[in-house]
Amino acid sequence: MMDLNELYSGKRLGVDASKDTRTEYQRDFDRIIFSSAFRRLQNKTQVFPLPGSVFVHNRLTHSLEVASVGRSLGNLAGEFIVKKYKEQLTKESRSFYRHNLYNVISSACLCHDIGNPAFGHSGEDAIASFFEKNESTYKPKFSAEEWTDFIHFEGNANAIRILTQQQTGKLEGSIGLTFATMAAIAKYPCESIARTKGILHRKKFGFFQAEKENFQKIATETQMILEQTIPTIYKRHPFVWLVEAADDICYNIIDLEDSHRLGIIDHDKCVNLLLDLIDSLDAKGLDGLKNRHHLIQDKNEKIAFLRAKSIGHLMMNAAKTFENHFEEILNGTLEKPLLSLIDEEKNSNSKAVLKQIETFSIENIYNHHAVVEIENAGFNVMSELLSHFIPPILHAENRSKADEKAIKLIPNQFLYEDQSDYHKVLGVLDFVSGMTDNYATELYRRIKGIEIGMRR
Questions:
Q1: Is the N or C terminus of the chain more exposed, i.e. has fewer CB atoms within 10 Å?
Q2: 300/82 Cα distance (integer angstroms)
Q3: pLDDT band for position 50 (50/70/90)?
Q4: What do you get for the CA distance between the two ends of the chain, in Å?
C-alpha cells in the first residue's frame, strides 16, 4: 500500500523552491491562472460553438467550476485522511492533508483541460487523422512509440507536455508546477503503446515519448505504483480520483444547464431529470427542496438552483465513496470511477439517472446541428493547418521558398530545428494545438486566401 507520507511533493521541474508567504501548492494555482495556456481556454469550445448570443460554457469557465468542486472534494478528503490515519502521518503530512490537499486538487482541476486543442475532441481527431492518412510518407521517420503518439494524439498527454516542456528561448520546467499537482492530473499514467480499451487507467495515455523522463520523475517523487516497465505503465495516483470526480460532476450537470439556456431541452424535462437525480442522492430532503424551487419564477434560475443542488449532492457522495474505497485506491486496485460507485454505497438509482442524462446529452446536445457543424469545421481547419506546416518542417534539407514562408509563420519558441524529426513535429503540434478556436480559424482563412490583408 502507498505511504501517505510520500504521496505529495512540493518539488518542481527545473525550479528551485523560493521563500513566499504562500505554500508551494497555493503557488501552483496562481501560476496556472496567470499562464497564457490557461488564458487561451477562454476561446476554446467546451461543447457549443463560441461565441453565441446566449452565454454558455467554454473551456475556461468549465475549468474554473471544476476547480471549485475539486477544492471542496480535496478539503473533505483531507479531513478524512487526517482523522482516520492520524497516527500514521508525520506532522508535516497532517498539515499537508488538512491545509494543502485541496490546493493541489483545485490546481489540478484548473489545468486538467489545458492540453485540449482548438475545437476539442474534433481537434484531437484531426491531428490523429492527419498522420493516419499520411502513414506511408511519415511513419518511416519515427519509432513505433513516437508514431503511436501521433496517430492517437491525446489532450491528456498534451497537458503534461504544456506544463513541463521547455520551449525554445524559455525557462526549463515551463509553468513549473509541483510534482503533487502534476501527478493529480495523470488520469492515464502510461505511454501511448500501452493504451488498452476496457482498462480505466489505460483507456487513453498520459505522456508523449518526449516527456517520458519527466513523467517518471513525477511518478517517482509521488510514489506512484509502477505496474509495468516496458511499456511504461503506472497505477493512478490517489489524488487523480478526486480530480476525475470533479470533472465528471461538472460536465454531466452543466452541459444540461447549457442546453436548457439554448432551448435544446424542454424546461420540464430538464427539471425532472435533475429532481430525479437529487431524489436518488437525498430523498429525505426532496420535499423541502421542491418548496424552495417553487418560489423561483425565472426558468433559468430554477435550473441553476437545481444544478447547484445536484452538484452539491454528487460532490458529497463522491467524497464518501472516495473514503469507502480508499484502501483500494492506495493499493492501485480500484477500477471504476467514483461516480459509478455511488449506487453501491447508497443502494440508489443515481447511476441510472446519470446514464439517462448522458443518453439525452449524446442524442440531443453532442449531436445538435450547431455542435456537429463546428466539429466538422474544426476538423477541416486543423487538418489544413497541419498540412501547411508539417511537410515544410520535415523538409529541412530541401525546402522550397513556399516551405520557408510557411515556417516563418511558426513562432520561434515552437521551432526545434536542431532536434529530431519527432521533436520538430511536436513543435508544430504545440503551435497548432495551442491555438484558440478563433485564431485557428483566422489563420486558416488567411493561408487559404479566403481573407487577405494586414492584421490590425
A1: C
A2: 40
A3: very low
A4: 59
How much is the pLDDT for 367?
82
pLDDT of residue 395: 86
Dihedral, 160, 162, 166, 167 alpha carbons, nearest 10: 150
- Cell numbers at residue 83, please? 482523522
On whether the CB atoms of residues 422 and 146 are closer than 8 A, the answer is yes
In whole angstroms, give the CA distance from residue 179 to residue 181.
Answer: 6
Specify the 3-state DSSP secondary structure of 451: coil
pLDDT digits (tens, 9 = 90+) for 178-231: 999 999 999 999 999 999 999 999 999 999 999 999 999 999 999 999 999 999
Coil, strand or helix at 172: coil
pLDDT band of residue 365 (cuts 50, 70, 90) is confident
311: its cell numbers: 452538484
Task: Kindly state the percentage of the chain with pLDDT values over 90.
Answer: 72
The rounded distance, in Å, linking the Cα atoms of 56 and 14 is: 38
Question: In this structure, are residues 255 and 247 in contact, taking their beta carbons and an 8 Å threshold?
Answer: no
Angle value at C-alpha 109, between 119 and 158, nearest 5 degrees: 45
> From residue 137, how far is each of 192, 386, 390 by CA, in Å?
21, 14, 12
Distance in angstroms (rounded) separating the CA atoms of residues 124 and 330 = 32
DSSP-derived 3-state class of residue 197: coil
Model-level pTM? 0.93
From residue 453, alpha-carbon distances to 117, 438, 443, 446, 447 in Å are: 27, 17, 12, 8, 11
Backbone angles phi, psi at 50, to 5 degrees: -120, 145
Residues 281, 155: Cα–Cα separation, whole Å: 32
Q: What size, in residues, is the chain?
A: 456
Confidence of residue 3 (pLDDT cuts 50, 70, 90): very high
pLDDT tens readout for residues 390-421: 999 998 778 899 999 999 999 999 999 889 99
Interatomic CA distance for residues 183 and 108, integer angstroms: 9
Please count the helices (runs of H) and the strands (runs of E) in the chain: 22, 2
pLDDT tens digits, one per residue of 136-192: 999 999 999 999 999 999 999 999 999 998 777 666 657 889 999 999 999 999 999
Q: How far apart are CA 207 and CA 187, in angstroms?
A: 10
H or E stretch covering 234: strand 233-234
> Hey, how many other C-beta atoms are within 10 angstroms of the C-beta on 302?
19
- And the C-alpha cell for 136? 506511408
Task: Check residue 51 and give its pLDDT.
Answer: 44
Q: Which residue has the cell 480505466?
A: 200
Q: In one letter, which amino acid is 279? A: D
